[in-house]
Write a structure and sequence with these properties.
Elements lengths: L5 H15 L15 H8 L4 H6 L4 E12 L3 E8 L2 E8 H4 L1 H8 L6 E10 L5 E12 L15 H6 L1 H7 L1 H23 L3 E2 L5 E2 L11 E4 L4 E5 L4 H9 L4 E9 L11 E10 L3 H20 L3 E4 L2 E4 L5 E4 H7 L11 H10 L10 H12 L8 E4 L21 E6 L2 E8 L4 H16 L10 H8 L5 E7 H8 L20
Parallel strand pairs: 3-5, 6-10, 14-15
Antiparallel strand pairs: 1-2, 1-4, 2-3, 4-5, 7-9, 8-9, 10-11, 11-18, 12-13, 15-16, 16-17, 17-18
Helix pairs in contact: 7-8, 8-10, 8-16, 11-13, 12-13
């Protein structure tokens, strides 16, 4: 049996005393009639004389975050979802019995307070308690003096504590909610239909990634957590839903880093009769709108860098970016051998199965991506790394695809969709051969999707945007774990 700390033992003893006094440690419900923010907005600007005239009692509720005891009186601060406020607890105001209950309360307990507002000698708005109710007993101590939870791993594992003691953390997740709502409103105003597609799929498709696998007992079949909703959304386009979007959870069985979490949020949208160039314009419009809503302008600060989202954004081909930004020589683009030799000088790990296009893309990821701080569209990706993209009419070795980079990392991936079922079948067959050769990230052959394509898909462009990375940018957060409420971590040893 794990020995409890003295502080926890003390709280347990207080709880037992309260029970003997007939106090319900966890009563059902409470009905505050004013929030802390509402109280501050309403009474914060009043002088003492006006406050006395407004002496109508109000009920507030929140968690005790500090207390100072002076014998028969105490000052505490309580915090609700909108802010914190001081309360004055006097024995002769709330009765001796209630004061005895209060003496057994701790920092971290939830309490309901009814009383009127006044201003202390230091000018702080305070509610003087005329009634006090214990709403929930906290059995564990909170971070000392509420200076914040500073251990990074503890913050992620105990987000419930992190949110309470670190106001900045809560602000990030409030902003995350606003960003997602802003994105949703943007697409709905442009006649896109929000839809939901399966999270468990018999064939995982839509991205080059290793999936999570599970088994459905009743159906007696393997299922996979989706790596992307793409192929289902395109089925909807085939079915006549010309503008669709989904803000979705996707799952990839990959490593964890400041940029990656196995479970993440993406926006995917599809637009019939559009091209990838149309989506560049729409993406500029989307980000300009969201950034303005969050920052009130077009410029944000991210990790010490000033990033301006005002359009037009830079547009450059992948090959030109490799030459002009990455310093790759012309021979690298002529043969796989030259590209492989150059990659070896860069100390990149290559697979024997890597094609020329895959090597060039890996060189881009290493040499160019970290340098793309301002919003930049990179287009013209090799066909070998774009199994769902339409080939370029002038050069079939590249596709009508772009990726958006901001702050030195990929934010979005988009392309004019491949709607030729014969070409798509050949691409799937190539992916299947890679999988058979041991590439766990290669895509599966999806015969049902091919059948759908054979009914005819209109010219379409689609895009996926990493919501978590967008939130990182707009909240100046260095790690994806800072913008995911409950990031995945290794099992705790404690």
């Amino acid at each position: 049996m794990v020995k409890k700390s003295p502080v926890i033992e003390e709280r347990i003893n207080k709880a037992l005393k309260l029970k003997k006094m007939g106090v319900n440690l966890y009563p059902a419900g409470y009905h505050p009639d004013i929030t802390v923010k509402e109280a501050i907005d309403r009474f914060g600007g009043m002088d003492e004389e006006t406050l006395l005239k407004e002496a109508k009692p109000h009920a507030v509720a929140g968690r005790i975050i500090s207390r100072r005891d002076f014998g028969k009186a105490s000052f505490i601060h309580i915090k609700d979802g909108t802010g914190k406020i001081q309360s004055y607890i006097r024995k002769d105001k709330i009765s001796e019995d209630k004061f005895e209950v209060f003496k057994l309360m701790d920092i971290g307990d939830f309490v309901g307070i009814k009383g009127s507002f006044f201003r202390t000698r230091t000018g702080e708005l305070t509610i003087v308690a005329e009634d006090l109710t214990l709403l929930s007993k906290s059995m564990r101590p909170w971070p000392e003096k509420w200076h914040g939870l500073t251990d990074v791993e503890a913050r992620y594992r105990q987000r419930y504590v992190d949110l309470t003691v670190n106001d900045r953390v809560k602000e990030v997740f409030i902003l995350r909610s606003r960003i997602i709502q802003g994105i949703r409103d943007f697409f709905i105003k442009r006649n896109f239909l929000e839809v939901e597609t399966p999270m468990m799929q018999p064939i995982p498709g839509g991205a080059t990634a290793r999936p999570f696998k599970t088994f459905h007992n009743a159906l007696g079949m393997d299922l996979y957590l989706r790596v992307a909703p793409e192929l289902y959304l395109k089925r909807l386009v085939i079915g006549g839903m010309e503008r669709v979007f989904e803000i979705n959870r996707s799952f990839r069985n990959e490593g964890i880093s400041v940029k990656h979490n196995p479970e993440f949020t993406m926006l995917e949208f599809y637009m019939s009769y559009a091209t990838y160039e149309d989506l560049m314009d729409l993406t500029e419009e989307l980000f300009t709108c969201i950034v303005d809503q969050i920052s009130g302008g077009s410029i944000i600060e991210y990790q010490g860098e000033s990033i301006d989202f005002a359009p037009p954004w830079q547009r450059i081909s992948l090959f030109d970016a490799l030459k002009d930004i990455g310093g790759a020589g012309g021979d690298v683009f002529e043969s796989r051998e030259a590209a492989s030799d150059f990659a070896a000088k860069c100390q990149l790990n290559l697979l024997e199965s890597d094609s020329h296009g895959q090597i060039l893309t890996k060189l881009f990821d290493y040499l160019v991506e970290p340098r793309l701080m301002k919003p930049t569209f990179i287009y013209g990706y090799p066909t070998a790394v774009s199994p769902l993209s339409r080939r370029n009419d002038k050069n079939p070795d590249i596709t009508d695809r772009f990726e958006l980079f901001i702050g030195g990392r990929e934010i979005a991936n988009a392309f004019t969709e491949l709607n030729d079922p014969v070409d798509q079948r050949e691409r799937f067959e190539h992916q299947a051969s890679l999988r058979e050769a041991g590439d766990n990230e290669a895509q599966f052959m999806d015969l049902d999707y091919l059948k759908a394509m054979e009914y005819g898909m209109p010219p379409t462009a689609g895009e996926g945007i990493g919501i978590d990375r967008v939130v990182m940018l707009l909240t100046d957060s260095p790690s994806i774990r800072d913008v995911i409420l409950f990031p995945h971590m290794r099992k705790s040893q404690v």
